[in-house]
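In keeping with the milestone schedule agreed at the kick-off meeting, the structural modelling team has produced records for the first pair of proteins. Each record is given below as a sequence line and a structure-token line. The laboratory manager (R.T.) confirmed that both were archived under the project's standard naming scheme.
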Amino acid sequence: MYMVKKYLKVGLIGVGNMGRNHLRVLCTLKSVEVIFAYDVADKSTKEITENYGVRLSTNLLDDLKLIDALVIATPTNTHYDYVKLASNYVNYIFVEKPLTDSIENTLELEELKFRKNLFIQVGFIERFNPVIQELKKILDSSENVINIDFTRTNRLSKRITDVDVVVDLMIHDIDIALLLNGKVKEISAYGAVDGNMIGFASALLKHENGVFSRLTASRVTEKRIRQIAATCSDMYVDCDLTKKEVCINKQTFEQSYKYISLTSLEEKVYVSPQEALLSELMSFVEYCLWNKKKEIIPGIQSAKDAIIIANEIQKQILSLK
């Protein structure tokens, strides 16, 4: 299915906050030619595309015929329709997370993928965060992982009106929890609901490998937090995804020195400063051009696994109203 080309002709649908970041990064890639960007043609969108020398599309159907691959960075409730439309023109599609907002729509796109032989990458960007990559290496070397705590908070953005905190924020950590510990066999959750939208959610996942994942996500918190803390039998690992910091505390035999008593050692791990979005889009482009598929690339199966758990968490929280 892959093509042998020097350049990938890419289209972009959605020039909102995330779409603008995609446009910025795509325009820096030497092997990419951005053919068009499509969005509501307001002044700010036109100015942004002009700054990058990219044409603002006024006829999406005609422009889809001109590209090899498409990036979709629109509101979640539009993903399903855009993927179905794009599948008539291109075989390579990148969709921002979550793929859709329901398991039913995700299953339909899974069937479409197999029927039309599509490559669909889902934008679980945290997989490409160098902190997560270092954390995975550390946990793989641990004697026994007991529990991992995930905390993700942010105040509600005015641009997010179609999905709750579970599908907007927590789904990132659901995906990471699955990446680190595999399938889940038990889920329990509670949260706070404002109208029909969940603004605060807490969930406990028990994985088949015996590890627990405790997830907290909030859009009622002013402070922006992106943290992961892993409790292991031989170490405690503390990660700040925003600052790109990883600290390991290892237990040691108590050692006494003059005026000092050492019972543990803290080690800071060097983390590569590379931007996660750049790594994510490079992986997409490399697969499209040269069939270079990295293990961490999330596809429809990853999207399906995450949305099944997200929907169950939503169901449990809403049942408590």
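The second protein of the pair:
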Amino acid sequence: MNTLPIHLALALPDWVAPHVATWPQAPDDRARMRLVLGLARENVQRDGGGPFAAAVFAAGRAVAVGVNRVLPERNSLLHAEVLAIMLAEKHYASHNLSGPGLPRLCLVSSCEPCAMCLGAILWSGLKRVVGGALREDAEQAGFDEGPVFPASHRYLEARGIELAHGVLREEAREVFDLYRQQGGRLY
């Protein structure tokens, strides 16, 4: 008799915590993006699952990070942004990252979030998102970002979510180039 899976365990690769432990305070978007791009680059170099990384910051300090784990975990939902959001919610023991008593949190992603991640951002309560590479950069690299339109961004902004696009875009695109050079699989 077949049984249904009833348990799911998720973990970031062992190298992530020591890597992030070296991060200094990052006072602005560019400094935060540099840290996230370093994490994405490291994920590519270690064949950790793709050229994407994200972190949730509070007052310049990362409270949660994520790297793309789609391929190693064989799970289409395990985008870097989703993992960073999930771990931030665990850190604050809240499904609402703008809930009472929480600091103002910002998600920094190595690439503008895809359609799925935009939905996760909306429901998480995050009020600020900073993206590196643009949607068209990801698609040019061969990734499918799903139905993300200017209207998608306007909808989030109307819901009180501030979006910053293209922060250190060229450096972010270099991570895609590295992934291609190393023969990374597209998904």
